[in-house]
Amino acid sequence: MSHAIPHRFSIGIDPEDIDFMGHVNNASYLKWVQAAVLDHWRALAPTEAVAQKMWVALKHEITYRKPAFLEDDVIATVLLERVQGARAFYETIIRRGEEVLAEVKSSWCCVDAETLRPARLTRDVIQRFFSSDDTEQAG
């Protein structure tokens, strides 16, 4: 069995993220998720795949749990749930310490950097995003 390798992404809260109510504007979470998912790709994918492939967001579903504030130390944890064809499905949890601030489900389309057409990832690239706990030997 394999499990997604969690990727932690530190979020910097800027004064322009703060809305009229004194907490982070909901739109900033979208910016954070996009940065976190792309950082996850660059951190785990091979260099040649990063050069040849780009990602286009298709859908984000954000559930807001608690507000974030300017001085907060916020971390996004990104998990690649699955890859289906040229699409990737992610879960991103945004936390302040142990508190969940937001949960995000998103889907992305992988595109070829030159043609901008949808492109599938090879199995070996996909496997870099998952760890295996198999102790059984293949045979």
TrEMBL record:
SUPFAM superfamilies: Thioesterase/thiol ester dehydrase-isomerase. Keywords: Hydrolase. Pfam families: 4HBT_2 (PF13279). The keyword Hydrolase applies. It comes from the Bacteria. Gene3D superfamilies: Hotdog Thioesterase (3.10.129.10). InterPro entries: 4-hydroxybenzoyl-CoA_TE, HotDog_dom_sf. Belongs to the 4-hydroxybenzoyl-CoA thioesterase family. This is Thioesterase. It comes from Novosphingobium indicum.
